[in-house]
Structure formats: structure tokens, C-alpha cells
Specification:
41% of the residues lie in helices and 12% in strands. The protein contains nine helices and eight strands. A two-stranded antiparallel sheet has the order 1-4. The chain has a two-stranded antiparallel ribbon with strand order 2-3.
Amino acid sequence: DTFQPGSTFKIVTATAALSEGVITPETLLDCEGVYTYFAPNYLYHCWVYRDFGRVHGSLTASQALQESCNCFFYETGRLLGIEQMNRYGTLFGLGEATGIELGEATGILAGPDYRTETHGVTWQATDTIAAAIGQSDNAFTPLQLGVYLSTLINGGNRYAAHLLLRVRDFTTRTDTYTAEPKLLSSFPLDPSVRDEVMAGMR
């Protein structure tokens, strides 16, 4: 089954924005509890405001990951754009097969093509900011999320998931098959970006 990734997707948004120079590790964006860029027609709320009536104030990317600030990632997603966001989502394996030895759902990476082909409607800028925090049409398997995070940890190297480690002959007790790591894709993830994102995760 696939599920909306929610805030776990913010790592894609942060990595893409930092990698593309849309923001830097020092960039401060304000959370005032309500994101008003599309006001008065659309107002979007940060969870801390919705649940507790508070705001996060000025945050860097790593602080925004730590606090899971919606307003920071709404604005970052708007500045980044859906094309770049989805390019990184694909590089992380979201919406892609994991390579596991069983049948699997490949999930949905939200974007203009999927929205038009599936729903016959045009993608809007407000859809991009929803996608930036893991909402909109985004839906992935828990295994895809695991592969995605391992790709970050491995510096942009995405390895196939698998269940079978080895096959051992019952009589001789020797291994007749041992699984080798299989690299599905790779991209040059700057170590400083990786470290910044992981600092926020910690």
C-alpha cells in the first residue's frame, strides 16, 4: 500500500533547494503561523499555529527540519518549483521501483503530468506548496521511504532493496548464492548539503 509521506518529504524539498542554491544553510525564512503568499484566496497554516497558536519565527533549513515547519517549506517549495522538487524526488527513488524481490507499488510523485493525466485538471502553484510538505497527490510505500533515506545517508547512491541475503546448501552448508549490493542510480549529492539536512534530522 502507499501512503501520503507528510513531513518526511520535507527532506527532499530541503535537499533540492540547498543543492540548487535556492536557499543556503544560512538563509532565514519566517514562520508567522500562517503562510499568506496566496492570500486572500488561500491561507495555509503551520502545524504549530494550528495546534498550539504559536509560531516558529525565523528558521534556517536545518532548524526548519528539526521543527518540521510547514511555513518554511511552503516558501521553499514555491521558490524551488515542482520540476526541481520532482527531479530530486526521482533521484531519491520516490515513485520508482525499489528492486525488492516481491511485487510492489511504485507510488505517486505529485506533479503536473500526474494531475493532468489522472484528474484532467491543471496543476496550480498552490499544489506545489502542498507537495513540498508531502501532501497533494504524493503517495509512497514505507519501503520507498526507507530507500529514499538510505540514498541520502549514502551520499546520493540509491541501492536496491532486497530480502534475500544468501542461499545455503542444506547438505554441504556452503553458500550457493549471496546477494551483492545493486546500485540503481546515483547523483552527486554535495556532502555539505547532506550534513546540513542530517543535522536537522538529528
